[in-house]
Predict the structure.
Amino acid sequence: MNIFEAVKSVFSNYATFSGRARRSEYWWWALAYIIIIIVLGFVERSVLGSGSADMGSGDGGMSASFNTGILSGLFMLASAIPYLAVGARRLHDIDRSGWWMLIAFIPLIGWLILLYWYVKAGTPGPNRFGNPV
């Protein structure tokens, strides 16, 4: 699977939380998502003059802020459900429920566990979520 097939697959399964997604589908989609956000942010800042990203430090701390423009905001809104759906299908591939995505809300350790699961190879053969794709 290449990046274009992954994006097509994710958007064609827009709100499909059942089934399985291979590692390649998930990670190509994640890369495409990041690239699209960067390109839209560049267009917003250089052409439209909106959106900003600032980092600073002072008084013993650091701060960061990211203000999206209308284009990247609309893209993030339109792709939120597909992003959650492909994440759930990716967890199904390792025989875990999609509800395990909520573990990301546990500070620091939660997203590390989720990252490990997303990188982990899927279960060979059928599991309770279906046949491998």
